[in-house]
Amino acid sequence: MQFLLELVGILTNYVRKTFDRSTKVLDFHHPHQLLEGMEGFNLELSDQPESLEQILVDCRDTLKYGVRTGHPRFFNQLSTGLDIIGLAGEWLTSTANTNMFTYEIAPVFVLMEQLTLKKMREMIGWPSGEGDGIFSPGGAISNMYSVMIARYKYFPEVKTKGMSAAPRLVLFTSEHSHYSIKKAGAALGFGSENVVLLSTDERGRVIPADLEAKILDVKQKGYHPLFVNATAGSTVYGAFDPINEIADICEKYDMWLHVDGAWGGGLLMSRKHRHKFSGVERANSVTWNPHKMMGVPLQCSAILVREKGILAGCNSMCAGYLFQPDKQYDVSYDTGDKAIQCGRHVDIFKFWLMWKAKGTIGFEQHIDKCLDLSQYLYDKIRNRQGYEMVFQGVPQHTNVCFWYIPPSLRGLEHNSEEYREKLHKVAPKIKAMMMESGTTMVGYQPQGQKVNFFRMVVSNPAALQSDIDFLIDEIERLGHDL
Amino acid sequence: MQFLLELVGILTNYVRKTFDRSTKVLDFHHPHQLLEGMEGFNLELSDQPESLEQILVDCRDTLKYGVRTGHPRFFNQLSTGLDIIGLAGEWLTSTANTNMFTYEIAPVFVLMEQLTLKKMREMIGWPSGEGDGIFSPGGAISNMYSVMIARYKYFPEVKTKGMSAAPRLVLFTSEHSHYSIKKAGAALGFGSENVVLLSTDERGRVIPADLEAKILDVKQKGYHPLFVNATAGSTVYGAFDPINEIADICEKYDMWLHVDGAWGGGLLMSRKHRHKFSGVERANSVTWNPHKMMGVPLQCSAILVREKGILAGCNSMCAGYLFQPDKQYDVSYDTGDKAIQCGRHVDIFKFWLMWKAKGTIGFEQHIDKCLDLSQYLYDKIRNRQGYEMVFQGVPQHTNVCFWYIPPSLRGLEHNSEEYREKLHKVAPKIKAMMMESGTTMVGYQPQGQKVNFFRMVVSNPAALQSDIDFLIDEIERLGHDL
């Protein structure tokens, strides 16, 4: 117990410093440096035990050489920030150390999951919040669920007979969508070639006419168009596909409509921004990751399904040792057989607790504030010297995509190969310097024909306008002489 | 911060009471009772925030109506116990709140995972601990990985072209094996009918001759035998399939051999018991869940693979926004593209920390002690009046399977339908009474033609001989008058 309290001292100290802007975001070292053992921090495991004192030192070192994802200037991923209530929820969850598969050993958590999923379905707009759902270990697995249940809905015999019982099935998703749809296609036996990528407009939104043309093409080849994924908040551009128009096409061709709102889902909680989800109530399934835009600690992802019972139909195998029918309580609360997992971590409690503590309006305020901040960034850089926006127009989500053009490049012809080659190297160089100086972190990537650009996202509740100002200054400071 | 410290007070108090045998294991309530709101414990979410004071009350209530899985008399699942170092590891993990996909944001954890997986591969016996692996969200997903990579090894074109690019593929696993193999077969597009169940001896171990006969049968039908799962520690009987004999057959027919050591894996750390894994070094892949027998908090499961690079080959999709090739560090440390997940929870730290604190010998002592305790139980009941063993012989793992026969049934003809029907109801009744009195918890289930019996397992480091004695007394107290 004394040990645990000493650890808590280390952790609360870490949290305090994380919120202090004078603390570095990270203290970068290369893999070989850490493997060689920094100042006695030895990662190797051995036969003999270490003292509790040494264990505390190990804990301190682990934090020291890590990355402060809760730091107000950490903008590197979609999941940032450190919510204290969410953290408390995780600490309680790990103390309770139980498993979601049965009501028997997780009565409270099972009910919390059920009630929370219902609230989420209400926000999607399904009548009375009816339907189904489950928390999964992340958005990729949630998206995988959507493909599985779509297949089960139209070709239930695949569960027993395999893919040979169905015609060649085709999935459709935007070229800007998350790679997990393609991964699911490969894993589940469709084949990645049967995941057709849809063209987008310059803002990264699916062009409905392209979807319809590609469906017709697939049908003409004699294949079966099964599933469309509409992305609500794409990873790089933050684009929202036009759900209503896609839903019309799905209805016309009798296809499953999934909405991947892993990143955008939080906007459903904002009266100001939820219109971007217009039509989501027509979806058959929705992925929504509270661990992204809503600041819930990792992992917390939900797959929500309009049709009740289909998750169990798709996945149940009725294991006798877990799901005994002759228990003394209502065994419909044993939800584990719906999952592709057996044991399942309790991801619900931290989210439930944050919802209690903030209320729906607290999440709304957080979302609105993050979108305001990204609009602030957009307004600040769109006409600023040395910046070029990757696409025009106010961001739909908090993603702001831009190039920083160092003075040495500004005179070059923008369409020349030399310019492109040089510009491609700017973001990685600035990023490397950021990490080495430890001041801030922001993501970059190429996209299609576009060379490396920065993708700024805001999901951290601790971020302020001054942090956005800092980021701009820092990019200019580090990039000016490139 | 004050709030966090108050929560820690609640949690440490909970932990203290959990280890106190006078505390109940659970305070059972039916779903409708909890939903109606016990003494003001309101599970519903609302628009408005609650006070921090109320949040602390909610935390207390959540624990109060839950199940103490760390209690020395909780024997209900394969995962039991509450290791304080492991708990500390989880608290630190949630404070660091990062993601395993890149070295960039999880440098220390990525290296810990790599070193720990290598140690585990060394224990399996692969030369120099070479190979591959990843931590996944549980044994079912780890087993799913094994099926995916087996398919990729023999039919890599399935990744792009789908199952139609391969002949009809068949998986083999024991009728006693975990249901996740069948789930994987259904999910990945093989179809559950193409998961052939193997017959076992009376101890629940696969009969190699049956495997070979079934392979020949499948080949004769023109299908392709792809994969055999050998279980090392079956869920109900704790049986270890004969790996060497199965490996011989896999070699003969050029098939993938997976060993599901989700439950048994810990025994690899015991010099006394690791012989039960004899031949495991011949496996192509191994599932091993430290969150079961080794007492690591949930979730902590590894899939280990002999061939290096095959996980990435099978799963990579090279997402540009995460796995940029032009980073400043050695990007071979960005391991996220090996996974079917994108975001991935940090499951390694608590395990690494426990290994540091206990050393390999600490795990060995824990394993040996648990197996001794189950032998103690076995010796105590095998000839005791009112007990009948489900199978004869010393348990291979900590699973002890038995019927308790109340006095009213002892005079009945054991082969009669009346006896079977009555006996089938005994374990559920005793279990219900256990839960209502909150004194202890142990699992039960039917298996094949065998009516409901108790499955006792020991993985809790806090359990003592006196707790085994207590369990026996409690079963007799509650069951005597049935």
UniProtKB/TrEMBL annotation, chains A, B:
<keyword id="KW-0456">Lyase</keyword>
<comment type="similarity">
    <text>Belongs to the group II decarboxylase family.</text>
</comment>
<protein>
    <submittedName>
        <fullName>Glutamate decarboxylase 1b</fullName>
    </submittedName>
</protein>
<dbReference type="InterPro" id="IPR021115">
    <property type="entry name" value="Pyridoxal-P_BS"/>
</dbReference>
<comment type="subunit">
    <text>Homodimer.</text>
</comment>
<feature type="modified residue" description="N6-(pyridoxal phosphate)lysine">
    <location>
        <position position="292"/>
    </location>
</feature>
<dbReference type="GO" id="GO:0004351">
    <property type="term" value="F:glutamate decarboxylase activity"/>
</dbReference>
<dbReference type="GO" id="GO:0030170">
    <property type="term" value="F:pyridoxal phosphate binding"/>
</dbReference>
<dbReference type="InterPro" id="IPR002129">
    <property type="entry name" value="PyrdxlP-dep_de-COase"/>
</dbReference>
<dbReference type="GO" id="GO:0009449">
    <property type="term" value="P:gamma-aminobutyric acid biosynthetic process"/>
</dbReference>
<dbReference type="InterPro" id="IPR015421">
    <property type="entry name" value="PyrdxlP-dep_Trfase_major"/>
</dbReference>
<dbReference type="GO" id="GO:0048786">
    <property type="term" value="C:presynaptic active zone"/>
</dbReference>
<dbReference type="InterPro" id="IPR015424">
    <property type="entry name" value="PyrdxlP-dep_Trfase"/>
</dbReference>
<keyword id="KW-0210">Decarboxylase</keyword>
<dbReference type="GO" id="GO:0005737">
    <property type="term" value="C:cytoplasm"/>
</dbReference>
<keyword id="KW-0663">Pyridoxal phosphate</keyword>
<dbReference type="Pfam" id="PF00282">
    <property type="entry name" value="Pyridoxal_deC"/>
</dbReference>
